[in-house]
Amino acid sequence: MKDLSQNHENIKAESFLSSMMDDISAINLEFQGVFSRNYYNDIIYMDQDTGTSDDNLLNISLSRDSVFHILPEGLFFREDELRKVQKEKNVEKFKALSEKIIKEKQKLLDFFYPFDKTYFKLRFDLERKLNEIIENKTSLLMDELFDIFPVDEKNDFIKRIIPLLPLASEIRSNKMIWRDILKSVFYPAEVEIRIAEKPNTAGLMRGVVKANIYIEKLSNKEFKRVRKAIEPFARFFYEWFIPADMGCEFKVKDKKERFRPGNEMTLDYNTYFN
Prior knowledge:
274 residues; alpha/beta; three-stranded mixed beta sheet; 7 strands; elongated
């Protein structure tokens, strides 16, 4: 089971999935019915089955409501029956009724699941259509823009962020969104971002965006290849999305762990100095 729970906070599930896949036929949805608003933590948990016959099955647990959750309370059974039994202080009766309600509830969730998945797929298809419209309109704008400002459009990381260029001024003034953008660009790698202060050439302190992209167990050759691909993206991100009075540093890092003899060491990747 491969855990994919990171990199999708505060984003609608359909928006997240439409940016990473073309088809969602091989997904299993679970609706927890604890939705609040604004799709905060919409995706509670996400993993992918490995080593089974359902190798590509993606399991997604959503905080949002199933059709079952939005129907009138008491239409099928009354959960408040438990409160009445609780007052009787009969543990066995309470346990039996609780198990019965859980089983009945699961049957109802299973019954409504085809409807839930159909609605989810419709919203997913709509998100993909909107993405295509945005990309098509953005490409026309980018063709004109890149005649003036040459950009390495073949760089995979830069390609992922190009659609955001029309929003560059808004993004430049919103530090809170930088991390989410980088997490999306480098998914499934973990991204850490912080603002530090360093003196500039005039000796004055200025803010510096420090971003670490954690990709584990790269060989020295692989590390150099990934770093080479990230360098033009880092320049592009700095030029378009970081305020002019700030600096920007990107590093590819391995997870910090105790040194073991025989491990390949790469300077500034899996070497840490206290």
